[in-house]
């Protein structure tokens, strides 16, 4: 894994940073662990409306995404025929490794969230974002709309179909769990964490324009690695230290890092066995 693509030795900033990729490689990975799909199936069976949502406005978009999924599947996927749209959305959520969100332009051309399946959210709730435009979806992210709101909307309006436009967001968590839904109230990072308790969490994202429906498919896949692995990679370690040192407080607070920032820096800078470190009181 090339950590430095996400952790360059540069001050923290908000950037679009898209690269071109292949739709099939992103959405039909041949390396998806079976236990990941089993976890998605369990979550979507136990709490369907927590992890999937659909608004009737998005039917044409969902149909186009299902056609895409069917055409990409290496073996014939389970049939979606006859299922109501919400159930189609849920069935696709069990088939794909990627979480997915469907965006539809409204009468003013503003993209709004009209459905999706998010089993592995990074501390946000799909239901709360439904029908919202991009700027409202991103309202919780300090400085994002000011820095990139116009660029994001412009990008959504003009992306060309047939390409997976890829970028990444990283964070740090106190749990290796894929599913960090806010209702689970999982432990957050603080000044007492040890190296073994911290994971670097990358959201690999893909945007795909859907030419027939005019919608957009947004996919999210996770890479979760122990902080100790980043520490062993000198370039990545320096990149993460620089990002932590230069991240504005509001952004660090949003990412759940603020109260742990100094501790994380100490852990990344310490020599030897970090488990012998005494936490600050
Ligand atoms: C097109 C370019 C986009 C950029 C540059 C971008 C950037 C970001 C960034 C920087 C964050 C904060 C993540 C973190 O630091 O942990 C974020 C959060 C988020 N983004 Fe995007 N994003 C983009 C597109 C989208 C799209 C298409 C959706 C679809 C709905 C989306 C949904 C979200 C959601 C739900 C969150 C979490 C918000 C929360 O915590 O309440 N983003 N995005």
Give a structural overview.
The chain has 281 residues and is an alpha+beta fold. It has one domain (3-270). The chain contains twelve helices and seven strands. It has helices spanning 23-27, 34-46, 48-51, 59-72, 85-95, 126-129, 134-137, 144-158, 227-232, 234-246, 249-254, 261-269, and strands at residues 19-21, 52-54, 99-105, 111-117, 164-173, 199-209, 216-226. A seven-stranded antiparallel beta sheet has the order 1-5-6-7-3-4-2. Helix 2 packs antiparallel against helix 5 (85-95) and helix 10 (234-246) runs antiparallel to helix 12. The chain starts with 18 loop residues before the first strand and ends in a 12-residue tail after the last helix. Residues 276-281 have low confidence and may be disordered. The protein binds protoporphyrin IX containing FE. Protoporphyrin IX containing FE (HEM) binds at residues 14, 16, 101, 103, 113, 122, 124, 129, 137-138, 140-141, 144, 148, 152, 155, 169, 171, 207, 218, 255.
How much strand?
A: 15-25%
The total count of strands amounts to 7
Order of helices and strands: EHHHEHHEEHHHEEEHHHH
Mean pLDDT: 94
Task: Report the end-to-end length measured between terminal Cα atoms.
Answer: 35 Å
Largest sheet: 7 strands, antiparallel
Radius of gyration, in angstroms, nearest whole number: 19 Å
Across the major sheet, the strand order is 1-5-6-7-3-4-2
How many H/I helical runs?
Answer: 12
Number of domains: 1
Q: Which cofactor or ligand species appear?
A: protoporphyrin IX containing FE
How would you describe the shape? Answer: globular
Helicity, in percent? 25-40%
Contiguous low-pLDDT stretches (5 residues minimum) are 276-281
Structural class comes to alpha+beta
């Amino acid at each position: 894994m090339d950590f430095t693509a996400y952790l360059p030795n540069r001050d923290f900033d908000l950037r679009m940073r898209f690269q071109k990729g292949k739709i099939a490689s992103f959405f039909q990975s041949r390396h998806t662990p079976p236990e990941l799909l089993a976890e998605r199936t369990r979550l979507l069976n136990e709490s369907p409306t927590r992890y999937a949502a659909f608004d009737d406005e998005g039917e044409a978009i969902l149909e186009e995404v299902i056609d895409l999924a069917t055409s990409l599947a290496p073996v014939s996927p389970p049939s979606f025929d006859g299922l109501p749209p919400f159930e189609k959305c849920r069935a696709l959520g069990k088939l794909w490794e990627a979480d997915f969100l469907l965006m539809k332009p409204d009468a003013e051309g503003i993209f709004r969230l009209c459905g999706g399946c998010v089993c592995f959210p990074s501390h946000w709730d799909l239901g709360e974002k439904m029908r919202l435009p991009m700027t409202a979806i991103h309202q919780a992210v300090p400085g994002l709309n000011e820095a990139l709101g116009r660029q994001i909307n412009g990008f959504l309006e003009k992306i060309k179909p047939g390409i997976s436009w890829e970028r990444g967001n990283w964070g740090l968590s106190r749990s290796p769990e894929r599913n960090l839904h806010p209702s689970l109230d999982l432990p957050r990072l603080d000044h007492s964490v040890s190296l073994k308790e911290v994971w670097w969490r990358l959201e690999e994202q893909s945007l795909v324009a859907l030419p027939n429906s005019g919608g957009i498919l947004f996919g999210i896949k996770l890479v979760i690695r122990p902080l100790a692995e980043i520490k062993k990679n000198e370039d990545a370690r320096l990149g993460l230290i620089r990002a932590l040192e230069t991240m504005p407080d509001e952004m660090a607070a949003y990412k759940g890092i603020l109260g742990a920032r100094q501790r994380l820096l100490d852990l990344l800078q310490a020599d030897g066995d970090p488990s012998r470190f005494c936490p600050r009181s």
